[in-house]
Amino acid sequence: MWGRVNCLVIAISLSEIHALNKEEQNLLQTMASNNEEKKSVHEELEKLALDDEPDTRLGQGTLSFNEAHGVHSQAGAHIRSWAKVPRVTIGEDSAGTTDVTNGEILTRPALKFEVVSARTVDQNNEKKHVAYTVMVRKDGIQPDPNPAVIERRYSDFLELYESLRHEFPSLMTHLTFPKKVLLGNFAPGVISERSAGFEALLEHIITEEKLRESSCLTSFLQGREQREARQWMVAQRYDQAIPLLENSFRLLNKLYTDRHPVVMLTLCRLVASCNADPTTTSAERFADLALRRYEAVSDADLLQFYVPLLQLCVRLWWSLGRDKRLLEARLEDLKRRGIKVDGCPTLLDALMAMDQT
User: Which range has highest mean pLDDT (4-8, 46-50, 54-58, 327-331)?
Assistant: First the structure.
């Protein structure tokens, strides 16, 4: 009798142990699955942070820039040359800043300004000078697939520094700027010292909100390229304007919020130019992005372009065979709310009219 009871107890114990072991295995599998999900979430967050602007790279490169015979764009040609440079994998030591959310550390890409090259410019219509190429990228776990580049000279950096020091003296007190030299501007040592000073200036600016939001920074970063792009748009040379606007959008989108006015205006110009150029296939991609971002826009100056954008997308969707009924319903809803829909200028015309005022 007692032997059978002992056997029964042992059997029950073994059964319980087996159940416990099974529960532990399930728990371990669940934990492993959760860890994989967390890892996947972190990777997706990083990917979204780096790839917020759409990847417009074409089959054999990053930017398309086909200059017609007798047409030359110095800024565009420079962007085109850097678009062909192979991307370097970013090391773990440049992972960026961290933020704590729900008890977990999420890595956020840090914005990086780097002077990657310098060249001597000696042209008939310009005084001999050194032009510095600045690459703007987000450093994170993955390399930034869409870095942006600008080319500026010493006088451009000096103007930015002096403008900010005049407007925000308290925020520029501890920053030193490379001094002018009477001789040796083209010496490697001077160029290296100035490059480091330019990087320090830009890195300091983006850490201060007032400096980052200043109009003189926006003008420094994209004033030249935007002016040239608008000139090409006036001349109806949209193939020349597109790479300038695309590079500008990439740069501004890294520095400012998704719906910042300068970002949205550049995106609208890019959509309008891509739509007007029959040789590009990027219109749909940028138009989709613009529609998504406009859903949360409240800036009155930007909203004037919303109806023209919707109407452009209706025509574009129709030409591509996409369902346009949702866009048409949105236009009807705006019309019922008293917003002018009929007789509006095209997106391109609205932007051109704004640029002329």
Answer: 327-331
